[in-house]
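hey so i finally got around to running the thing on that chain from the lab meeting. sorry it took forever, my laptop kept dying and i had to restart like 3 times. anyway pasting the input first so we r on the same page abt which one it is
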Amino acid sequence: MQQRKSWKPFLALTGARPSPSLFAYFHHIGMLVLFLVVGLMAVLLILTEVLLFVKFLQHPPEFILLWLQQHALPIFEIVAFTFAASIFAYTDGKQTIKHMKGLVILTRANPEQPPPVTLSEYVEVSTPAWLQPLPPVDLPDEMLDTLQQQINPEEPWMKNLATYLKEYVPEHSPSISTLVSLGDRITISVLGSTGKRQHIPLTQEQTAALIGLLALRERGAWVLRQHAIRPIYGEDDQNVTKHISRLNASLNKAAQKLVAQSGKPEGDQSSCIHEKLKLIEYDESGKENLWRLLITCDVEIFSELESLYAQIMAAKNDPNIPPPGRKILRRGCHRMVEQYRNGLFASYQRKHPNQYWPWATEYYTMYRDKCLFVLEYAAKREWAYAMKKKQKPDVLHASIRQTAQLYEWSLKVALGIIPNLPHAERAVYNCLKLYRMIDDLISGQTIFQTYATYMIKRNDARKTERNKTWQPPAEITNMWPEATSLPKSGSES
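ok and heres what got predicted. didnt touch it at all, straight out
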């Protein structure tokens, strides 16, 4: 027996534009009236035939047999026609009622919103016996729009895409999303299709520096290998391959766990994921070896800080945009400082606290200054609110303390790895002023001691013959003498 051929499926798209016009109402109402009349006539015919049949059965059997021999075929045709007309009126009348309901729903709907009816419910496609219908598939609008444009595979951009898929994209690409979060330390989040997440904190300093350097570049931008390696490893780059291999192994292990948690069979996708995921892409097609972060990987840098800063700047640049509310600022600043900690990549500088990564210096100072700007803006808003509540001592006291807390956070940020000393001095002054208002000597002393200890250590590290000891500015000491005495170690030196 000849083997049956396996044909590829034929695909056809159909579309329709809603048009709830007056003609549509006349058409469907007219069809409803027509089917109603046909249905009534069919019912009357059936009733008439039933009555005639009952009377016909009252005649003698010899008469019935003789009459049927002469008129059986016409009678059968009449009965068949009656039932066929009844079935036709019922099925088509039911469909017309359905179409009429859809027309009424569409007329009452808002044209700016998505249509409240589904196309597949009102479009029927008949196929011959030699075509087997495929299961219905709902395609998103964007996909339909793309397919309807009849893309030509010979177009240059389609050829470039095909080349990229062949050279760079593996045959099986698991539905895994990766996110690189840059902050005090770097964390890689791997998100599976079920919404479950695995976190990979980078603890090795050079690996973190390499990922940070690539993540700070524009998405998809290639970097020369030596420009990515030398600032971190110098001339001794023998550990690069080992560090990247360990990172990829951690990435694939996290992906394996997500696949296992999704409940899929062990051999379904987990074997395909093994050693497929790589966080760094390479391009060795040219004379120079190029590196970049995986183009499908997303990058976030101090997400809470960026959100607050964008809202404040949008309100400053456009008077029609309202600024973030006081409560939003308070909660946002809390999360921002918690996320910021000691600044960008600060956790990796413990071995050399006085020597920050040179290639990341501009990014550290940029986000430090953004954080200080947001905190100062929030403090001014909180202070303005306090001045409006002068007649309510409890609210006034809480608001002044909250304002002081914001300046205290500013001091912590300003005294980071790359300090902003003028801002730190202003923050100390404002803290002392506010804590003195509410008579909180202990908090005032704590703030000043933190600032003075930092400045004394900094001065000792840079001590010269002309400047042997550090003295606080008179503006600060005169603000609150009881809270601004130097630590004993500083006075003894």
